[in-house]
Amino acid sequence: MKPDDPYSAFFLQPALAQHRRYEALRARFVETMPVKRIAERFGLSPLTVDSQIRDFKRALDRGEAPEFFAAPRPGPKCDRKKPQVREHIIRLRARGCADTDIHQALKMAGTPVSVSLIDQVLREEGLANFRKRSREERERVKAELASGRIPGLTASPPAVPETPVVADVRRLDLAEGKSLYSRVAGVFLFLPFLLEAGLDAVVARAQMAGTKMIPAVSYVLSLLALKLLDKERKSHISDWNFDEALGWFAGLNVLPKTTAAEDYSYRLAGGQHNRLAAEWVRATYPLLCPQGASSFALDFHAIPHRGENAGLENHYVPMRGKAVQSVPAGFARAVDSPMLCYAQADIVRSEQDEMPLRFVEYWKELTGMNPDWLTFDSKLTTYSVLDRLRAEDIAFITIRRRGSRLVEQIRRRPSHDWTAAVIDTPQRRHQRIRYLDDHVRLPGYGTPCRQIAAELGRPAPTLFLTNNESLSGREIVKRYISRNAIENDLGINVNFFHLDCLSSEVRLNVNTDVAMTVLANGCYRWLSQRLKGCHNMEPKQLYRKFVETGGHLTVRGDQILVSLDRRSHNPIIAQAGLDHDSRPIPWLGGKRLCLEYK
């Protein structure tokens, strides 16, 4: 071939580095060309050619095959259809279309997909089990398909998502006979509790912000709906913008759009979110804790920030195993009742040590009396704060940080100083322990403090500090073990209510989300108490078995009839009688809730 031939030039003068390396090695080992000549041909230095030859030989000696050519990438070569048709499939199912009807409608709209893809989307959304349709519904869908007038879909051009209407309480239509379908009609099971707690009065006392289009109670219910429906972020409210029935839950024609939901927290600069949580606890405390609560467990949870440097303080996050930028949130839970009683995310490091005192002031203002017992971790506060709790005659239990010298001193104590005991755990296991009951001097603590060193099967003894002198060491250890309840609640808040998903650098935004988490947690705790045999169910189970249930909503006289689709757990709801003595719903024109089961 001629040197100036463009086809031969592709091999003799390669442009890509990998191609040049391949041709140079081929010239050496196949054509046995000298290194100096190879370097001249490909514009390389002799040392570069020598190093390439050396690396090539080493790779083959190790049994490795050098890569010169890119392997073809497996998988589809174009965009998948599922993201394009997901919303259309969900909307058509909400209108009562079966899988084959959806397949035909999408084909008419110029977006043909397989029935298996439709079934896959519906299973991911929890809509695979389709209710049995009446003859009238089948005929209606058949007529719509025959005419080609499928709402939201047209034959040409291909279907595009509809633009949801603007949320406006003045456009709420509760005309007689009005009927809607929702795939999460089970969310209306929480309405009796919200009415019994007087949510509208709670929102009014908290002086929450609102507008003429979206009143304050509707804003709160819209954000609460996201928590109740297992949504991670406020931006996911757009998943429900086409569900008018969820708009009814909030007293609106539809739920607000993403921008309105995300911006709402920035309108609460006057501490309304803190008052909302406090007024909510004041209203629901008699309902969730009828026997009263005197013992509380306190704990911190760091909500990490995932963006760039936001100027936030670093706090230790166990899931990451290091300190990262985060917003610390303080929580308090009643030990003997499933209720979060306090939540505050507007905290900086200099204020963390004062959290027990702040909770005492909060609870005294709320109920008029101090808590009897406080249980918290050793990192929560300081010895001087413990002394102030002692002065207030508030019993506490915490853990002392243990150093190697302190542990060695305890281990040198003779065996007759130790007391044997048996601890009954919730799993009915009997754990044998032994403990050393003593008094120690602490810096910043006015008097000798009682210390119980207990061997609980760990390498070093656990040191409990308390100001209570009447209970035995065994009872002190058992009381501290009950603190696990708040750790379980924090785990639920992180996993189901997605407490860690709001990684805003604005504490006000995080604090509003924390307050809504307290409301949603109370709603699910109430539902678990009302449903027989479900007291120990976590919110995720309650959501899957009861809340995530489709159904029709129909206006009938002074009632809103919620007809839930047939499911195996419906008899449990019917047995609870949640709609007995139903109260008028202020944000729905005084209508009353009525539940019906197919």
Provide structural commentary.
It is a single chain. It is flat, with a radius of gyration of 33 Å. The strands form 2 sheets. Strands 2, 3, 4, 5, 6, 7, 8, 9, 10 and 11 form a 10-stranded mixed sheet that branches. The chain has a 5-stranded mixed sheet with strand order 1-12-13-15-14. The chain is of the alpha+beta class and 598 residues long. It is built from 23 helices and 15 strands. Among the domains are: 6-61; 84-147; 398-480, no CATH class.
Supply Rg.
Answer: 33 Å
How many helices in DSSP terms?
23
> How helix-rich are the residues, as a percent range?
40-55%
Structural class, by secondary structure, is: alpha+beta
Number of strands: 15
Q: Note the main sheet.
A: 10 strands, mixed
- Quick check: average pLDDT? 83
Straight-line N-to-C gap: 83 Å
Beta content comes to 15-25%
Give the low-pLDDT segments. 154-161
Q: What is the overall silhouette?
A: flat
Please supply descriptive tags for the structure shown above.
598 residues; alpha+beta; ten-stranded mixed β-sheet; five-stranded mixed β-sheet; 23 helices; 15 strands; 40% helix; flat
What would you say about this model in short?
Helix content is 40%, strand content 16%. The chain is α+β, with helices and mostly antiparallel strands and 598 residues long. A hairpin with a 5-residue loop joins strand 8 (419-424) and strand 9 (430-440).
